[in-house]
Design brief:
Chain B: One of its GO terms (cellular component) is EMC complex. The complex is a heterodimer of chains A (300) and B (988). Chain A has 300 residues and is of the alpha+beta class. Chain A is built from five helices and nine strands; from the N terminus they run αβββαββββββααα. In chain A, strand 6 and strand 7 form a beta hairpin. The N and C termini of chain A lie far apart (113 Å). Among the domains of chain B are: 55 residues; 96 residues; 148 residues, no CATH class. Chain B contains eight helices and 64 strands. Classes of the chains: A alpha+beta (300), B mainly beta (988).
Chain lengths: 300, 988
Amino acid sequence: MKTTEVIVAFILTLSLLSFPSLGFQSDELLVDDEEFGLEGAPQPRSPEPIPSRSQPVTTPTRKRHSDLDSDSKIQFSLDHAFGDSDFTPAGTFSARLKTWSHGGQTLTKLRFSRNSFTDEEKEKFKNLLESDDFYRIRLPSNVLSPPGRDFIISSVKARCLPREGLDEHFVIHMEGINVLAVNYGSPGSCPYPRNLKLPAKWSFNSHTVLKNSEQAPRAPVFTEEILGGENGEGEVVPPPERSFWAKYWMYLIPLGLIVMNAITQAMNLPEEQATGQVPAQGQPSGGAMQRGPSSAVRRR
Amino acid sequence: MAIAMAIRSFLFLLLLFFSSLNPILSLYEDQVGLMDWHQQFIGKVKQAVFHTQKTGRKRVVVSTEENVIASLDLRHGEIFWRHVLATNDVIDGIDIAIGKYVITLSSGGSILRAWNLPDGQMVWESSLQGPKHSKSLLLVLTNLKVDKDNVVIVFTNGRLHAVSSIDGEVLWKKDFEAESLDVQQVIQPPGSDLVYVVGFAASSQFEMYQINARNGELLKHESAAFSGGFLGEVSLVSSETLVALDSTGSILLTISSHNGKISFQQTPISNLVGDSLGPAVITPSSVTGIFSLKVNAITIFIRVIGEGKLEVLEKTNLKTAVSDALSISEGKQAFALIQHAGSEIHLTVKPADDWDGNLLKESIKMDRQRGLVHKVFINNYIRTDRSYGFRVLIVMEDHSLLLLQQGEIVWSREDGLASIIDVTTSELPVEKDGVSVAKVEHNLFEWLKGHMLKLKGTLMLASPEDMAAIQSMRLKSSEKSKMTRDHNGFRKLLIVLTRAGKLFALHTGDGRIVWSHLLQSLHKPQACQHLIGLNLYQWQVPHHHAMDENPSVLVVGRCGPSLDAPGVLSFVDTYTGKELSSLSLAHSVAQVIPLPYTDSTEQRLHLLIDADQHAHLYPKTPEAIGIFQREFSNIYWYSVEDDNGIIKGYALKSKCTSEVADEFCFDSRELWSVVFPSESEKIIATVTRKLNEVVHTQAKVIADQDVMYKYLSRNLLFVATAAPKASGEIGSVTPEESWLVAYLIDTVTGRILHRVTHHGSQGPVHAVFSENWVVYHYFNLRAHRYEMSVIEIYDQSRADDKDVWKLVLGKHNLTSPISSYSRPEVITKSQSYFFTHSLKSIAVTSTAKGITSKQLLIGTIGDQVLALDKRFLDPRRSVNPTQAEKEEGIIPLTDSLPIIPQSYVTHALRVEGLQGIVTVPAKLESTTLVFAHGVDLFFTQLAPSRTYDSLTEDFSYALLLITIVALVAAIFVTWILSERKELQEKWR
């Protein structure tokens, strides 16, 4: 008994010791791996989604792995253009570059500082608003070695931006250190007949969101158990017995109509006869009920 | 009493009536061919071998560019048997060995097969490997008999093989790898058991190997150098003489070998032609002593007389095609020559040794729509008067195959239809007044007769002959093949564009060719050398003037294979097949965008985007410009650069700023771009919604009386990318290094609306996009199975429109226009299912109003079309659906999609080489027309939710009539009965 305990304890300590070591190669499937870094996965890309749907960007605490993952600060710039003008710097994104133990790199803690518009830029922007033209921005496609392969361009009709100030909303789609695309526009709606509206104050109110790819749901794999359960379920819950009316209403209604029709026909026939002539003795049984009241009337 | 009787009889008849309305799930055996048709083709013939033995005299074996080998009936052109090889299994050569086997060499010379000639069964197959890639040559040694066995000599991949034709065993092989030899020909001089292998080494060295065909022993090796180098192929003139061209194409070389000595003779081509105008090309032929040379448009026939002396036999600038030689008797050869002269072709059969002694000279009228003669194959037969007759098989420019005999076209096959590149449809003319009375009477009689027969059939009284008559009547019911528009919209014209650049109009009723048109404008030799037909668009669809104007289609082509080659437009009337006009464009055509605007003549506006991203508007009318200017700022498009991994969005900017003023040309500006990291993603598939798709409602009522709103944007693009490593074949990578990412991108703003990664999966991806969902098919490496995933996208911004009060008070946003610039609030639902088949193509049914539920049409690897209800690919399927969900039609969750054998649209048929499935809505909402094309064509009607809006084809009108008559009779009888009874009562 004692020896097994010792062995168990030994194994536990061993596993604890070996857990953060590089030698361990986990073959665990990388699902819901938000909290922990990817432990030795051999993938060159990082499929870890950054939980930053909403602004501000939050970074999960990774104290345990801080000795493994190195952070470094990086910056990349945002350029803008008014209509077809050339691109000029408009602001800087700063973020932490997280290097995972398996070599993947991701950005976290994205911050954005916008340069305020100069008077010249304000003038240009007003022109854009008047002509309902495009306000364009661009980002490098690789944040480590800008501009990477090409610039990521996005544009919006300038009239979509002004509200109180100038509201803008960035959704940056990342793949490791590469920027795939940026969704740029106003944070809310921009209804079609875009009306000319000058902003009250010339300051940008920026929202930024980083997005990484999501995992696809896996095809459901059915084991015998589930199938068995399903069969069992079929036996346990039989479909509720429907009432006679619910089952056969479609037959009953026309039948009822026909019967009704027949009865009214039958009622009308003897009535005509009754009013026209003296009732005969042996009327068919159909008219028998009818005759009672009619004769009563005549007696009065 | 009488009333009760009447009721009873009425109910009985009612029951009888309802029983005849029994709904059907799938096709019955006798309904095959009623609404569907299937046509078999083989494609453009590359090589034809006539069989000379007695039993096979009536047959010809052909190999085609669609990788088909087929045995055709020489009398009627029908297919005896046919095999369609895989797309990567290209046939290099065919021949016949020991009189009963067809030998084919395919897959770049690595697979040699033998097929039994009478029935096409495969006899044997051998795999031939070699050290390096090279030209593949097939040669059957007919006169070298080793125990009744013909030896097949195959040169492939730098190695010479001798294969037994009985069992496919390799008898011997010899490598030619050591030398950097480019083998041109393998020659067997008649009557010897030697084989010569000739080729070039290092482009200026002529090599000749003499090999013993019995054991592969190298007997002799000679070589000679020629400083000028060689161009292209060598042509064998006689067993000792070869002709070749030097590298400039201006000097003709005659190579002769005499007792191991190779000698060159040089003849400048200008000496032969007079003034040489350009490089010459030797046309391959195998006629002894004669070869032909093409210089520009001039064809020269030259005879070699002994020691390299050349004699010009004929010079002609007519379009000419020459057949291979045919040996007609001991040592005598003949060949066929076809020349074009206006609308006629002249066929001459000449003996090889006497140029002027024609054996046969015929003129045949040829349809201009068939174009030029591309290939000629000659065959002889013995006439009734015991003299030699000749027939030739010709392959035309439009890929059709014709047999000429006795100055007539015996039969023709429209094999261009085996390579359809685009399909569109056109309505038929509206029926005009003035149908003759006689026709009606005839029809009435026929109609009555038909119904009598049908009645007999339903009452089980029909004899087998009657049954056959009923079946044939159903099949050729003149209704369905009429040339006018029908009420249900079942009759249409399918306009198809083939790879040969020919347009065909097929009638949907029976698949016959209504008209065909070879795009002549695309064939002006000076303007356009290598025309490639690209796409078909509906140019003009008259609705208001449907009675007096004909619809037309736009054919877009390109001159040459490069993307920036100038484009060609052609406008063709779809009723007559006449070309209305054609345009040779100054710009290239990278993309054609049919705009949703039409001008007053109902011509659709088209925007053509060239390779430099300039937009060109067609038609070039001031009115079109006017319409276009109004929508100028609302026109966006995108381009996908597959190899670059970049998707870009564009909008119009201003008029072109070129020196030539062109008010129909516009500059574009780049609005957005999506750059996929080249090291981790590669675009493998992009799919959009069909432009003409109709959606009935945006709302989808779900189980708990709740409403979800579909996100119905026309500007959604589905993109699938895969790891660059994983873009190869399935199984070439491990699951860890392969992944597949699916994107939904808004093409106006470039927003990524949805992005999802499938780890351990790889392409090929086949996808279909309809309404608010996309279904895609890929391979899951972890599960070792194919999977199909569905993504449905719903609009959340309208989720609070469910309040009736808001609707009443007008506070809803249902009528406000939707702008892509608003931030989309969407949710997606997705689910994956396993699927057994691999796919060739996928499509979805489309109906006139979009009410009918949808079916996915899956082109399986077995060349069949499978219909699968979209309900099986519902992301909301769960293991235990609630009662409400079941009533909504949600199927309990399973891990794989079912394949129901009855739901094969193609029933027992196969659409060989399936390439695409096209669905066209009929006017009847329940019905959709399906056209599947590949090497074969197949057409049918489908009713995904059954024909709820019409009576089925086999509905018995006679029974209905009888029922009514019987009812009326019953009413009268009961009336009389009751009258009589009443009278009796009164008299009592």
